[in-house]
Amino acid sequence: MDYYILSYSHKNTDITTREKLSLDIKSQKTAEFLKDLVDNKFIAEAVILSTCNRIEFILNVQNATKAEGFLLDKLSVLSGIALESLKERADSYENVSAIHHLFSVASSLDSLVVGETQIAGQLKSAFKFSYEMGCCGLYLSRAIHFAFRCAASVRNSTSISQNSVSVASTAVAKAKEVLGNLSGKEALVIGAGEMSAICAKHLVSANCAVILINRDFQNAENVCKSILDGNPNVKIRVESFKDIGKYINAIPLLFSATGAPHTIITKDMVAKRDWNRYWFDLAMPRDIANDIIELQDNIKIFAVDDLEDIVRKNLALREEQARIAYGIVGRSTQEFFSWLQTLNVEPLIKTIRALAKDSALKELQKGIAKGYLPKDYEKNIEKTLHNAFNTFLHGLTMNLKSVSNTPKGDSVVESLRFLLDLESEDKMLESYKCEYAQDKALSQS
């Protein structure tokens, strides 16, 4: 079985194409797509990570070429993009390079904003969705847990995530760059997810008055309360989503980051105004119809990819820390494959038998040397001892083989290695299943 990743990101794919490829991890369409992938005989497990700047198909496959061909065909039908175009744009990774890429993504080194902190949560959600669907098992669970472990090492060993940044905070920084001081200004934030909440927090910190609207009023209220946190000086309030038309035509500064599968601000909703408007569309697929800019030349729409200049400045500041982080990713990749090798039960069984035989023969020689046992009986006693430890180890051997390809197997193997003092390095045990998988297993036990 091989690890394989097909990747479309801000590095190789424009936002229009990414929009067509994006998959909401909570949608029925994504669930069906995942099921179709793992129903293919060449694909055993699959996780789909879809964010505003990337879509990653993380697979465990029997044949990478066949799996890639099937996946690309499915993507072409799903997105309406020509197969050849999808092939040209895609970056594909296999085994060592796939794990290195996964670890880089989890550590936010491959993000549009290097060091952003949202990617770990997005990967965890993608894993959770696939795990619940029964599309993610032993092999991808191991890799994704190790990816989180690598990301934690990067955070703890570098300052790359200090003064944490995100696409949302970068958008607010861009607004400051365009408009100057935001203090005393008003902004409309649409959505109540993590991206919108981060936008609102940064705007409030800049002393900007925020109006928050969302289709689910209660979710918007919850975000508002978390930002207010009992501080009467914070300027944020929630308004009804049905008034979206009123507010987009009254407030010059707008940030939108909903999970809607279609545009929520269309050309017919926009009234002409004689003042400049600055709209930041952070959703994928986009919330704001692209043809709105044809209506008025004083509407400027910034999408995720339009934040590149601030991103470049961010990357330059973090360049040295990124080099250190990539070193950690490289070492973690090597450690992962070394760890996988230790999980092979056949060498462990041979080692256990060799240890048993060695101990038995040593004690036999001691008995002969001290006169407890006659030398003439050495071969017969040796055969008897051999039969005894074979009988004793038979059940252990059978159980070890039967459990080796289950989630419980890694824990058993590593426990045995520890008890027999075969390894002194840190062990993964069952924690490779990730925090979510552990919680799920406990709830079902």
From TrEMBL:
Its EC number is 1.2.1.70. GO terms for biological process: protoporphyrinogen IX biosynthetic process from glutamate. The gene is hemA. This is Glutamyl-tRNA reductase. The active site is at 52 (nucleophile). It catalyses: (S)-4-amino-5-oxopentanoate + tRNA(Glu) + NADP(+) = L-glutamyl-tRNA(Glu) + NADPH + H(+). It comes from Helicobacter winghamensis. During catalysis, the active site Cys acts as a nucleophile attacking the alpha-carbonyl group of tRNA-bound glutamate with the formation of a thioester intermediate between enzyme and glutamate, and the concomitant release of tRNA(Glu). The thioester intermediate is finally reduced by direct hydride transfer from NADPH, to form the product GSA. Belongs to the glutamyl-tRNA reductase family. Possesses an unusual extended V-shaped dimeric structure with each monomer consisting of three distinct domains arranged along a curved 'spinal' alpha-helix. The N-terminal catalytic domain specifically recognizes the glutamate moiety of the substrate. The second domain is the NADPH-binding domain, and the third C-terminal domain is responsible for dimerization. Catalyzes the NADPH-dependent reduction of glutamyl-tRNA(Glu) to glutamate 1-semialdehyde (GSA). NADP(+) binds at residues 191-196. Residues 174-310 form the Quinate/shikimate 5-dehydrogenase/glutamyl-tRNA reductase domain. GO terms for molecular function: glutamyl-tRNA reductase activity; NADP binding. It is an enzyme of class 1 (oxidoreductase). Substrate binds at residues 51-54, 111, 116-118, 122. Residues 325-422 form the Tetrapyrrole biosynthesis glutamyl-tRNA reductase dimerisation domain. It comes from the Bacteria. Keywords: NADP, Oxidoreductase, Porphyrin biosynthesis.
